[in-house]
Every structure is written in structure tokens, then in C-alpha cells.
Design brief:
The complex is a heterodimer of chains A (252) and B (157). By secondary structure, chain A is of the alpha+beta class. Helix content of chain A is 33%, strand content 14%. The chains are: A alpha+beta (252), B mainly alpha (157). Chain A binds chain B through residues 30-38, 109, 111-116, 122, 125-126, 128-129, 132, 176, 179-182, 209-210, 212-216, 218-219, 244, 247-248, and chain B through 1-9, 15, 17-19, 22-34, 36-37, 39-40, 43-46, 48-50, 118-120, 122. The complex binds iron/sulfur cluster and FE2/S2 (inorganic) cluster. Chain B: InterPro entries: SQR/QFR_C/D, SuccDH_FuR_B_TM-su.
């Protein structure tokens, strides 16, 4: 059965899947200029490939100075969130064919954080907010000799918020965060939610008190930008509302 | 992160940046640092949030009822005059209605504007002044309105 296979290979190579796509990248290099410029790159690419592959082609073949973060390239590490065609997404999870490749694809750094170079931003304020909600298990008393058991229903309670990969797509799509960097931001609240509703955790009261603060959950305007942006499909606005509800119902 | 693509420093000042002399970053005026969470005690933000929801529901009834009576029923706008107002305020029911509407609407609007100022005014000083102005205007309007409702004299000349 060798012949049909050969035929197939020939047919595929005849119709090349490659198309030319324009990548319009917002570039900033403090060592060259204090101005931001949009630069266009023409890339030969298979529409079934991802935006990250296009960025790789640019960095490897066209312009080695293009700077961006990426690590796993499979939507797990959360390092390559960027604004692609005006929406926050992971470059490694966005296929070219889903983006209308006839028009230039715009790529910008995520908003609301200091741009260090090209697509790399300073994530420190984001991670500071994350640290401030104490994203670790807090318990009292002696440590059990066995694992801490939990029923499937109790696990289900916070399942959605365990999926966060800390990419900052949500926080940097939030207009309250843009205007006022003091707000905890959706990602920190999502990660607080993950522990507040964990039956094994005993620090919920402390975390709720932190989020009850003036830059906490009450600044949420239910814009739903975060839910739209999340590459993991977490229902972020719902999680924030659940924290609000817990704050109101726990005392009354 | 401004959309401005022209150099902020003109050629006269010698805008040449290199490895040893990099351009300044455009940092956010207010950003979260290790010192940010100065925990404020109390539940004020929660109370304000709840008040907005509850007063909103009550205001829908009060304001729509008010508009209906003032503008549509029984001759519409043309009937409004000193006598009409005097007639309504003769009854304690309408006094309470108007008083409640005044207080809730003013506090609701004031809190809404406070949120807007908190969100948009970047410098601490601007925030202070805008909020000072807002609170003064609110207190003044509430006090004046309350005074009028309670001391209204239908026989005034
Ligand atoms: S909640 Fe979603 S968008 Fe936000 S940091 Fe986590 S994975 Fe990213
Ligand atoms: S590179 Fe790891 S999430 Fe995209």
C-alpha cells in the first residue's frame, strides 16, 4: 500500500498551506528611544499555526531584537499573555486562522503594567496583589499524619478557580485596574476564592477581611472583561460575586 | 503606555538613548507595592456597596412615582404651581415621600460620584479636592431640602 501514501504527500505539497500574514507589533526599546513604534512584519505561515509561532519566526528569522516572554508554548505557564487584535489572549493558544489573517494582526503588551521592552511588562504589581491574598493553605492545630481528606462535593466548590495559570490576562483587561493600579485585580481574587472556599483551609476569614478593604472586591464593576479574557475559561466575575456574597452573608 | 508615538524629548535636548542611558519607563501613577495594603478597619466599602443596591431599588419606585404624579397624571406639568406643591405637602405622606427621595437620591448620587473620583482621579490632591467639593455640595443640598420640607409655610407672602 505504498502508492496511495505517496500520492497523498504529492497532493499536499502541491497546494501549499502557507499564507503571508502581516504582524503589526507595538515595540518599545528604552535603549534606543523613548517612543513607541508600530512595526510590520510579513511572515509566511500556515493558518493552522499559532500567533506564538509567528512571533518565533520573526524573532528567529527576521528581527532578533523582538522581545517577548514564553516558556511552555502550550497554554500552561501563563507567560505569554498579550493583547492580540485588541483582546487579551495567550499567543500560544491563538490560531492564526481564528484571527482574520487578511488584515494585519496587531500585537501589544498587556495594558496597565509598566512596559519594560516590546511585549515584556513589569509583573511585580500583579504578583504583589497575588501575595497579598495569602495564596497558600492556612490551618490551625497539629498537622495530621495522613493527607487532609475532602469530599468530591467540597472539591467541586472551588474547582473552577484552581485552573488559574497567573497569566494576568484578566487583571490587565480590567478598567478599574487600568485607572487605579491599587485594585487587587481579578486574578488575586480568583486565587483567594480558591482557598476561601476550600473546606480544608482555615484562613478564609483573614482573606475575606483583606478583600473587604477599600481596594478589594467592592471595586469590581462587573464589567466581565476578565471573564472574556481568561484563557482558562474561568468564570471570574462569578467568583468575585461569590466572594462578595460570602462577605455579606457571613455576618448577617 | 500612552498611544503617543513621538519622542517626548525634542532633538534640542539631545534625545539619544543607549544601553547606559536608557529612556525612562512610563510607570503607572498608582501601583501596588509591598506597602500598599494598609488595612483599613471597618466595613465602609461593603456598606456603601449594599446601600447603592438597596437605595437603587427604592429609588426606582420613588422617582418613577414622582415623575408620574408630577408630569403625567391629572393635567400633567401645567398643573404644577405653588398651590399644587402646598397642597401635596399638607399631607405627611408626601412629605415623607419627598424627604426619603431627597436623602436617598443625594446619597446615592454622592456615593456614585465618590466611586468615579476614586477610580479616575490619579493624584491624591485632586482626589481630596474633588471629594471635598462633592461632600460640601451634597450636605448643603440635603440640609437645604430638609429645611424646606419641614418649615414649609403655605401662607407665605
Ligand atoms: S484567572 Fe484566567 S486570565 Fe486571570 S490570571 Fe488566571 S488564568 Fe489568567
Ligand atoms: S507559553 Fe506558556 S502559556 Fe503560552
Amino acid at each position: 500500500m505504498a502508492t496511495p501514501v505517496l500520492d497523498k504527500v504529492e497532493k499536499e505539497s502541491a497546494a501549499s498551506p502557507y499564507i503571508t500574514v502581516t504582524f503589526r507589533v507595538r515595540r518599545f526599546n528604552p535603549e534606543v528611544s523613548d517612543a513607541v513604534v508600530w512595526e510590520d512584519f510579513q511572515v509566511e505561515i500556515d493558518p493552522k499555526e499559532r500567533v506564538l509561532d509567528g512571533l518565533h519566526k520573526i524573532k528567529w528569522d527576521l528581527d532578533g531584537t523582538l522581545t517577548f516572554r514564553r516558556s511552555c508554548a502550550h497554554g500552561i505557564c501563563g507567560s505569554d499573555a498579550m493583547r492580540i487584535n485588541g483582546k487579551n489572549r495567550l499567543a500560544c493558544k491563538t490560531l492564526i486562522k481564528d484571527l482574520n489573517p487578511e488584515k494585519p494582526i496587531t500585537i501589544e503588551p498587556i495594558k496597565g503594567l509598566t512596559v519594560l521592552k516590546d511585549l515584556v511588562v513589569d509583573m511585580e504589581p500583579f504578583f504583589q496583589a497575588y501575595r497579598d491574598v495569602m495564596p497558600f493553605l492556612i490551618t490551625k492545630g497539629n498537622e495530621p499524619t495522613r493527607e487532609r481528606k475532602q469530599s468530591p462535593e467540597d472539591r467541586e466548590r472551588f474547582d473552577d478557580t484552581t485552573k488559574c495559570i497567573l497569566c494576568a490576562a484578566c487583571t490587565s483587561s480590567c478598567p478599574v485596574f487600568w485607572n487605579d493600579g491599587q485594585y487587587f485585580g481579578p486574578a488575586a481574587i480568583v486565587n483567594a476564592h480558591r482557598f476561601i472556599f476550600d473546606s480544608r483551609d482555615e484562613g478564609g476569614e483573614q482573606r475575606l477581611e483583606i478583600l473587604n478593604d477599600k481596594d478589594g472586591v467592592w471595586r469590581c464593576r462587573t464589567t466581565f472583561n476578565c471573564t472574556d479574557a481568561c484563557p482558562r475559561g474561568i468564570e471570574i466575575t462569578k467568583a468575585i460575586q461569590e466572594v462578595k456574597r460570602a462577605l455579606i452573608t457571613r455576618r448577617f | 503606555m500612552s498611544a503617543d508615538t513621538t519622542s517626548a524629548i525634542g532633538p534640542v535636548e539631545g534625545a539619544s538613548f543607549d544601553v547606559d542611558n536608557p529612556a525612562p519607563y512610563i510607570e503607572a501613577p498608582r501601583k501596588r507595592t509591598g506597602r500598599t495594603p494598609r488595612a483599613t478597619r471597618g466595613n465602609f466599602e461593603m456598606a456603601a456597596w449594599l446601600f447603592m443596591r438597596l437605595s437603587g431599588v427604592v429609588l426606582v419606585v420613588l422617582v418613577l412615582g414622582h415623575l408620574l404624579i408630577q408630569l403625567f397624571l391629572d393635567g400633567g406639568v401645567s398643573k404644577i404651581g405653588f398651590a399644587f406643591v402646598a397642597g401635596r405637602w399638607a399631607s405627611p405622606f408626601w412629605q415623607v415621600w419627598d424627604l426619603l427621595m431627597l436623602w436617598l437620591a443625594m446619597l446615592h448620587g454622592c456615593n456614585g460620584l465618590r466611586t468615579v473620583i476614586n477610580d479616575y482621579a490619579e493624584r491624591a490632591n485632586t482626589r481630596l479636592w474633588l471629594k471635598g467639593l462633592l461632600y460640601t455640595a451634597t450636605v448643603f443640598t440635603i440640609l437645604l431640602g430638609t429645611l424646606v420640607i419641614f418649615t414649609f409655610d403655605p401662607n407665605i407672602r
